Amino acid sequence: MSPNNMFNLEKLIGRENFATWKFSVKTYLEHEDLWCCVEHPDDKPVDSSKDIKAKSKLILLLDPQNYVHVQECKTAKQVWENLQRAFDDNGLTRRVGLLKDLINTSLESSNSVEDYVSKIMNTAHKLRNIGFDVNDEWLGTLMLAGLPEEYKPMIMGLESSGVKISADSVKTKLIQEINTSKSSAFYTNSKKTGNNVHSVKPKGPRCYNCNKSGHFAKYCK
Hints:
The protein is an all-alpha fold. The chain has helices spanning 3-6, 15-31, 48-60, 76-87, 92-104, 113-129, 136-145, 152-161, 167-199.
């Protein structure tokens, strides 16, 4: 990954994006062979040049308002630990808030099916990151519970199919439903357009003198 690509990563703003920031930055440091500077025993020496690079990259991926948390840090590990203490909120209040978000998410309150699925999966990921176990079958069932009444036939179809309910199976089914609906709508619109074209009544022969329809040239006045 080039240095320029580093700046395509999101910057750490606060608790609201710490979970996703932590995941992406850890992956980035692993790719750069620098994660060893963060995750190592205290009694094990770290290559100083690597540590400087890792520390610099971590700090450059912070929103400037968060520099205060790392200004006194000497190593990449200290930077990481300070940020975890500041933003990795895994307390009861955080869990309750995320659970409320998860339960109250519905398709009707989302911009699209994709947005709905993304909200649920992201919230579940945040809960798992703070040590709260989210059962996959429960998550899939919750995803179905947030659908409006018109999706009832789909839910009944899933039930009768015998497929094990999971977040992934429900997500796949929802996307299939959307694609099917789009295809049906396209076919219907195309058919209507075709019918409109063929239903236009002919205007009769075209006159080559005046270029109007309804009479022949020899009868043109």
